[in-house]
Amino acid sequence: MEAENNEGERPKTAGDQDRFEAIVNLSKRRGFAFPSADIYGGMRSTYDFGPLGTLMLRNIKEAWWRSIVRERDDVVAIDAAIITNPKVWEASGHLQTFVDPLVDCRNCHERWRADQIEGVCPNCGSSDLTEARPFNLMFKTFVGPVDDESSVAYLRPETAQGMFVNFLNVMTTMRRKPPFGIAQIGRAFRNEITPGNFIFRMREFDLMELEYFVPPADAEKWFAYWCDERMSWYRRYGIPDRLLRFHPHAPEDLSHYSAQTSDIEFLYPWGWGELEGIANRTDYDLTAHSEHSGIRLEYFDQSTGERYTPYVIEPAVGTTRVMMAFLVSAYDEDEIGGERRTVLRLHPSIAPYQVAVLPLSRKEPLEELARDVLRRCNSTFMCEYDDTQSIGRRYRRQDEIGTPYCLTVDFESLNDGEVTIRERDSTEQIRVPIENVVAELRDRIEA
Ligand code: ATP
Predict the structure, then answer these.
(1) Which of 58, 338, 350, 429 has its CA 20 to 30 A from that of 188?
(2) Three-point CA angle 181, 184, 189, nearest 5°
(3) What is the mean pLDDT of residues 194-217?
């Protein structure tokens, strides 16, 4: 088994390298992400998400779902199988074309993606490399009791095909007409060769994908619309403009199915890199599945006789890449009252915990009151209860994991029925009656 190792693209400057290492260390130390099966030395490009990472990933999915599904009436969701009929991958072109060109270094025997290394092995500096060979990124498996060619199946490398093969099922059961979308969040698997900068490039990750079906003549308009929508989403959740940009693909770089693609790129500690891909997949997939299955995947209007194969606009992004971008843009070090602190300035809806309840003492009757405050809050917010060590240290711990609000329950609370809300970024403190706490926090968190 390969040991966990994050070589590959390296941060460009010492400052960025330090910052990147600080983020990786914080993630391990505070339970965001651990190398998978750490006790066995980990496994390349594979991570296990700890308690805080799990909460953050849920929040990322929820924020995506909210803007793509819940706040719209033209998108419905599905949950398709991970291992499906292999004919899907034949029709989609993945069996033939989902390949990276790979080269081996004859000197140190490391394997690299030819398009990422410019003829020199990043490990040993040798330029004695083999010819590039195509390597399929799909994981192969066998279904049923016999390991032969007739039982080969694949773990899906994208969720999109599940939406295409269910196009008719969804359109008819939900009585839809283009423009409309099908959304899905689910696990995808890619046998990535180049190990990747912490959680940037993984072998399994959750994809959040929307397939938005439109009349062909409107495809360009909808492509522009979804580019804007998705960029606004990152801004809405606090990523500053200077860390985001579009990267439109040149015609020669387009995937086999795409007429137009633009990546949303993020300024990672090692430079600009893809965060999300937005593609105009044309009618490539629906046409391919129509041809291979013999079932016409088209829109047909009985009253007008109108018939066409819709074009598809697809915004697709991995949850862990979004997590990485949020962590990088939120990480900060500042000074409060002469003391240095590390703070994750995460959006309140993205932070693992929205609220920490901190009683000044573990003794009754303060604990009972603090537990009452916790019960009021935890049906609405993800809360942490912490009654260990000094209050200053507890604030620092919450700052470091991005908790936007701490509720301090002190002895005065027993008399006046009020608690202190302490805000993470400004460290400002205000007193509020316990019965108003949930409403007060809701206003701030959902603002
Ligand atoms: P790359 O060029 O980085 O390999 P790609 O162009 O193959 O990526 P797409 O097929 O466009 O990626 O995938 C859409 C999105 O899925 C990416 O923008 C990224 O957010 C996410 N993604 C793709 N591969 C991975 C991976 N190995 N680990 C984590 N997320 C990924």
Answers:
(1) 350
(2) 135
(3) 92
| Residue reference for tokens 């942490």 | 384
Residues 6+ apart with CB under 8 A from 146: none
Confidence of residue 14 (pLDDT cuts 50, 70, 90): low
- Distance, CA of 237 to CA of 164 (rounded, Å): 30
- Is 202 exposed, middle or buried, given 0-12, 13-18 or 19+ CB atoms closer than 10 A? buried
Say how many CA atoms lie within 13 Å of 285 toward its Cβ: 28
Any alpha helices (H) in 141-202, and if so which ranges? 160-165, 167-173
Express each pLDDT in 261-316 by its tens digit. Answer: 999 999 999 899 999 999 999 999 999 999 999 999 999 988 899 999 999 999 99
Q: Name 248's bridge partners.
A: 262
Ligand 1 binding site (Cβ under 6 Å of any ligand atom): 190, 192, 201-202, 205, 207, 274-277, 316-318, 320-321
Q: Which atom of ligand 1 is nearest to the CA of 317?
A: 20
Q: Which residue among 57, 231, 321 is best mutated to probe the pocket of ligand 1, counting the most ligand atoms within 8 A of its Cβ?
A: 321
CA 266 – ligand 1 centroid, Å? 13
pTM for this structure?
Answer: 0.91
